[in-house]
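Dear support,

Our group has been running a series of protein-ligand predictions, and this particular one with zinc ion is the one our PI (initials K.S.) wants archived with full inputs and outputs. We had some confusion internally about which version of the output was final, so please treat the block below as the authoritative record. The input we submitted was:
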Amino acid sequence: MILTGHLLIEDGSGGCQLRTGHVKLDGEIIAEISLDELTPRGNRSIQGVIGGHDCLICPGFIDAHLHLSQFGIIGAHGLPLLRWLEEFTFPEENKWNDPELAASTTATALEELVGHGTTGIAAYATVHHEATRRCLQVAEQKGVRALIGQVLMDCNAPASLCRPAAQLLNEAESLGAKYPPNRRVAAAVTPRFALSCSEELLRGSGKLATEQQATIQTHIAETKIECQQVQRQFGKRYSQVYCDAGLLTERTLLGHGIYLDPLDRQQLATANSKIVHCPTANSFLRSGEMHRQTLMEEPIQLAIGSDIGAGYERSMVRVAREMILTAARLGTSVPSASEAWYSITAGNADALSWLDAGRLRVGASADLLIIRPSIDWQSANSDPLSKLMFGWDDRWIQHVFLRGKLARSYN
Ligand SMILES: [Zn+2]
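Confirmed final output from the archive:
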């Protein structure tokens, strides 16, 4: 199979560029990349060649933060974070007491994500062990690349969603043993956030993640009120709570990071932990706006996520667009479209330590998109990557490949 068109490739300085060329697949991987040549023989009518001069060949998008159980509450508007959790999120997550429902919800969610071009995710399940196990199984069956964690909560949430710390840690350990790191579908250690965890649970999570060398997912400093409550509950700064529990590692993904003081930022940079910027969720819940430039100057490595269901966008292109607009509203250094395309592909792959994903590279997994835009994006005197990002239409996605297999086709 050969995909031909305009290849979205890295430009070597944190951005992307388009180059004419073709990509040859061999089974599940990219076997060959040729630049400046549309196809070996020049047109898509040859059997086994798809794409063409009007197409983009793009690595599948990666979403570095979302909640698989929350697709049903996308659009539940009007409340700040802590009330939104109580009134919409926790009742929705309660439904995953039924593992069959969890499996079918996950299947639908993954189909929607793949349909929007997302082929890799870092995601939260719920506190339910069996539901999380089914969630991991479904991800494996669907062929997406995934980090998924059982949510760990033992306080400050409805009783039906809390479990004793020891039980949660045992359950998370067994998931990690069955789905170890570096597998295409791996379990992540996922304490929800400091407020819903005892110190015992946080420390146990840190210890488990170290033992298993697992990715850690949690939230940090999404709202001011949450930060104040963390200070009251633990008597220390937010990042210090995680640091003392052994949760700040280079494998740690921290959602949001809007209200971090200089000491927090320094601590995260020293640990090489990643902040996952979730601009659509932040605007939806009126949480505030993450100061991307300040974090990058620290320097803290950034990823980007939809944070469904507080985030209302399934398309990572639109999430990236919101990242640009957020920086513009703050009046700070505005990422270019080239950097935004990079952030939802190779940038997120790097933050998740997925070295064979998010980029067109020989030997990488063939998780690829063929996109046929309907607008004139190739005309002179304008940035094609900006035209494509701001003119984006999901209907342009023609084919989605997962591990070299055609997973979705809209022709
Ligand atoms: Zn979240």
